[in-house]
From TrEMBL:
Residues 7-16, 23-36 have a biased composition (Low complexity). Residues 1-50 are annotated as: Disordered. It comes from the Bacteria. This is Right handed beta helix domain-containing protein. It comes from Nonomuraea soli.
Length: 292
């Protein structure tokens, strides 16, 4: 669903980042930022470095091969159809309630996103849609979805958390709504919280929906390989809705926070071709794939 929203003040981030999922390998050291500085800037695990001085900016319309770096953006970055080789690094993007996405990739465009913080009010999602390679992101305070996931989409070693859903937004951490292929969701912490109140799918609902909403409600696209591996998950009505028709979907090594959901950890209609070593975080209790 889409709800109309006004501009909002960006929420405050949590004071400290969580430890990475237990299965996460150490992230490779990031290259030093070219922003002038008297001392090297320490790269954080998630998001833009706190001690990096950013340049205020309005929205950016990317061109092929562009490196977008060191900006404090109020608005969005747009990567048009056919615009490839774009890199977004060490930036903060704040939603003002006017743009659909914080990072919007369209058509056959292609972008790599590294150490970027995305926060605030976007009318659709913090990021989307296809041909995106993202790592070490900090996505928080979303009024709608954290990211819309399409073909050729990879998000790793990122923190998606503390959502502030608008009424009727059906807010998900990561959302798939059609058949997709070549998707990797690995070693992320996705803890979107519960949001507000569930009122039975009423327009006034302002609860979160799911940390992972990976389904093929829309009859379009082609199914392929989807890997969901080593993530720490919590929040939502069900924390995970999973099942894309015809997909080779591997759901392995994920941990769920017990009780951090309205109904259950996994929706009873869940589907996966490979389901292995998915557990509750408090006692390593195995979570079986629901039987139909």
């Amino acid at each position: 669903m889409t709800a109309s929203c006004g501009a909002s003040t960006p929420p405050t981030a949590a004071t400290s980042a969580p430890p990475p999922p237990a299965t996460t390998a150490a992230a490779p050291e990031q290259s030093a930022t070219p922003t002038p500085s008297r001392k090297p800037v320490k790269q954080p695990k998630y998001g833009v470095p706190k001690d990096l001085k950013l340049t205020p900016s309005t929205g950016v319309w990317a061109v092929p091969g562009q490196v977008i770096e060191g900006l404090d953006i109020k608005g969005h970055i747009f990567i048009d159809d056919g615009v490839t080789g774009v890199v977004i690094r060490n930036c903060r993007i704040t939603g003002t309630g006017k743009d659909a996405f914080g990072i919007h990739q369209a058509g056959s465009g292609e972008v790599t996103v590294e150490n970027v913080t995305i926060r605030g009010d976007f009318l659709d999602a913090g990021m989307g849609y296809e041909n995106i390679t993202a790592r070490n992101l900090d996505i928080y305070g979303m009024t709608h979805d954290g990211a819309k996931v399409g073909d050729n989409f990879s998000i790793t070693d990122s923190w998606i958390h503390d959502f502030k859903p608008s009424k009727g937004s059906h807010a998900d951490g990561l959302q798939v709504f059609e058949r997709v292929k070549n998707v990797l969701i690995k070693d992320n912490v996705i803890e979107i919280g519960m949001g507000g109140t569930w009122r039975g799918h009423e327009p006034t609902d302002d609860n979160t929906n799911a940390a992972l909403f990976i389904v093929s409600t829309l009859d379009r696209g082609r199914s392929g390989k989807i890997v969901i591996d080593g993530n720490r998950l919590s929040g939502g009505g069900y924390t995970a809705y999973i099942g894309v028709k015809g997909a080779d979907l591997s759901f392995v090594n994920n941990t769920f926070k017990r009780g951090a959901y309205l109904w259950d950890a996994v929706d009873e209609r869940a589907y996966a071709t490979v389901w292995r070593n998915n557990t509750f975080s408090d006692n390593d209790q195995e979570i079986p794939l629901p039987t139909r």
